[in-house]
Amino acid sequence: MRGVALFLSVLLCATCHSALSLIDGYLENGNFEEGPKPSEIRGTEVIGRYAIPKWEISGFVEYIKSGQKQGDMLLVVPEGAYAVRLGNEASIKQRIKVTKGIYYSITFSAARTCAQEERLNISVAPDSGVLPIQTVYSSNGWDSYAWAFQADYEQIELVLHNPGVEEDPACGPLIDSIAIRTLYPPRATNKNLLKNAGFEEGPYVFPNASWGVLIPPNIEDDHSPLPGWMVESLKAVKYIDSNHFSVPEGKRAVELVAGKESAIAQVARTIPGKTYVLSFSVGDASNSCEGSMIVEAFAGRDTVKVPYESKGKGGFKRAVLKFVAVSTRTRVMFLSTYYTMRSDDFSSLCGPVLDDVKLLSLKNPRQ
Question: What three-state secondary structure class fits 40?
């Protein structure tokens, strides 16, 4: 059945009697294929707070069919035939049963439909974040975004709200495909001092979406949808999967899509005076991102620049940074030196892929 695919399973805790509900999939009517009754819609405007099944709406909300025209622009829906558009101060919300204290990530697809800068306020009380809706990351005008929260209650209320006030009340982001995923707390091991170093743990990735998921900067999200890592920059990084991209190792990786404005970091426990080796893979996602790329890696006071010549058809190489720790905590960070555009459309930002990061202490510093 299209649209609604909530997968629930139970993980028994080894040290407690309670069970943790694992959620991984679409919200109920998460792609809005179930629409209002004919009596609950006027043109494209939805009439009635509960007119869209499983959702509660407020303000000027439109029900948009794929291929619908807005002036000279054709509105495209990324999945299925329908999406919703949030006008001035409009919102949609849904109540979801969760496990108190557990971290979750929301993934949703959005596009802007007017020339003005559009934003989307996403909230699960008491957490909230305002995400700028851009169109420069994918050629089709749609992007998927991730946002994380920690559940304070057994039932939460997810709200997506357009805080914009434009002259045209219909101006506002188009929303489709909303999913939720339980996030597992990653741990460092004796084989790697970094957590989630292969980026395998992260937000829900839509099976049919070929454009990846944007992880917002931590200034817009207190809880990272990429456990263990922080996006310490002004712009997002892109979370990609091996079903649609070339990934150096495993099923997931990160693409540094916005030059030096797209940085990812983690703080590791280290012993001052001890020598460590930071190794990682640098490559391209096989998404027509061509040209000379450089990934800069930082570990405490040390840094290395790793050049990578991309033909845009996949591939990667390993790189190493050896350093002596000067503190009990060492900040490891990666960023891309240059801005790069995809060669097939010259409008979508792209960049080098980072994956398979390892941090280990060196027993013999002379090695």
Answer: helix
